[in-house]
Amino acid sequence: MTGRLGCGALLLALAGCQGAAPTVTVGSKVFTEGIILGEVVRQRLDAAGVETRHQRQLGGTRILWNALRRGEIDAYVDYTGTIAAEILGGVVEPRLPAIRAALASEGIAVSEPLGFVNTYAVGMSRSRAEALGVGTISDLAGRALAFGFSNEFLDRGDGWPGLSSHYGLAPADGTGLDHDLAYRALAAGDIDVTDMYSTDAEIRSYDLRVLVDDLEFFPDYRAVVLYRAALAADPAVATVFEGLAGTISTATMIGMNAAVRLDGASEATVAAEFLGGRLEQRVAIAPDGLATRVAARTGQHLAMVTVSLLAAILAAIPAGVVAARRPRLGAVLLGASGILQTVPALALLVFLIPVLGIGAPPAVLALFLYSLLPIMRNTANGLSTIPTALLESADALGLPRSARLRIVELPMASPAILAGIKIAAVINVGTATLGALIGAGGYGQPILTGIRLDDTGLILEGAIPAALLALAAQTFFGLLERRVVPRGLTL
Amino acid sequence: MGHATATGRSASGSGERLASLQLRGVTKLFGATLAVDDVHLVVPPGRVTALIGPSGCGKSTILRLLNGLVRPDRGEVVIDGAVIDGKSLAAVRRRMGYVIQDGGLFPHLTAGENVVVMARHLGWDAARISARLDRLSALVRLDSALLGRYPRELSGGQAQRVALMRALMLDPSVLLLDEPLAALDPMIRSALQDDLREIFAALRATVVLVSHDLAEATHLAHHIVLMRAGQIVQQGPPGELLTSPISTFAEQFVRAQRVLNLGTAE
Q1: Res A121 pLDDT > 80
Q2: ipTM of this model?
């Protein structure tokens, strides 16, 4: 397998991703407005002389909140309605004093609102809405329409489940898709109704109608900075957070979103322009060449896949041996790893964040867990299909069990074991793209950004290397098979 | 008979090597099936004993009881006065060679690697291994060049000769063979049968052979044990069974085998 040296270097590289002591880390969710606001906060801190870092496009509310609580990030922007419904479970009313009181116990402070309100809304294309005579959410009831909602909206208490029961709509009608794809689906006529944020630039550019929330379901979503209360000890930091209060109007926010999503400006540039262009030297965001970018992501991706796979090999082969020796225990082991396999990757990552934080470690652990089943099952199968007569011949020679395993059983099972490792490797290369959602980098990063900004070039920048890496893994294990599998078995 | 000297008894002297094997009141059940039913048997040391009988009579189980692949439900298996138990099993097995019907060679190892697998595990040096290999390939009449082949590249007869070499590698005092010729076609079978007789003579180890073929058993063995339904029906020198079967079953078995052999001979 890969040399020990290479493995050690990878571990070091992973460890290096963590750490960095006095820097203030700003996080942002995987949507454009969140990233712009993250940049605004970061650049303001930077201008105030605070060392900063921006962990951009980390998954959703859960991931950011857990990262904040663990101190993996120090601040991020969220919305009052979201905080009340998602973080506080809907038991706290979505007003600032109540939210502040609830979060204080977690050591988290909440800034004054930044100004604008970005409420959830439900909308349709103007032409379709006019043709059907739909102006309010109540008008949707009893109509055969295609509802396509962002996945987060579909799951959130303050999203579709609450909305559908509030308005008497059929909950089963809602199907999920990515928020950034929803507008395209709406324009193409694939769906009729979607959720939107009231500050989305697309409302204007796609000529959409925001339906009136006539039964007043959606609460206020005021943007606030959540930050670790300990940060306020530094007056410079506290001043920055409070200085942002009331500075961003709804129109300004829509304008900034449009600049990124429609005009292709970078979030950093848009934030810098908003802050008064005081950022010239910083804007030298040295755009790396394609080769450098791909090389860096290849390193991150390979590190995740290799470390998780090696660990899985070390754990799953012995577990497979145990499973073959003791069928009952084996059924338990295989059952447990089978259940793990059914946990969706994103859910698994979210579970792991409270324990391991964000970045590479939870991604590596998740990939490790996914790799166990194919390797363990193939090892157990490979061992248990060895003819009894051969095992008895080994016993009759006087070979002890351990020597029988090493000399006879593992070599004979090696084709099956290798096939299991190959399956795990290829699955890992694909699954590791999700690591980008929790800040682990890799090929998933440009894919996420590409989906968000509707930039096919960016998506391919991640997807093509990922596909090539999967092919390379196939080829590598094909060659390894020739070396490792005894020739006598392939005759 | 030049091969007799080729085996070389360098490991130890010849007198004390003759292992004595005994079953004392051994019973073995597989589920509800009584495979071996209270069998007492003394295997003549240094001689060739053949266990014969119809299929399912328990003869293979007896063989597997002798090297501990099957453990008795009741009774004892004794070698040189000591009862074989879990502790002594590994040591006992190294004194016993075991050959099964289709050889049981490990397909991922070459013929040569199969032969030396145990010697290597015990840390024999290369010179000792290669000297032993030379002697054994001469004894079993196998072209040494074939030792580089994998089992799947060998004919049935060649594979059986390799299996015999593997069983004899550690110079065992007991050799157990379970239908060693049954899977071979007639020509190869008769050639190997003749060779086996010479090999047994050269070894002078205690040999126990399982066969369902009376002609083969009488050709190879000094002592015949006829079994039926887990019990010993009659035992003695080959001639005795042929000329004076003591029961109807023995008589029928002998007659049926004669008819069978006439049929195949002509």
Answers
A1: yes
A2: 0.88
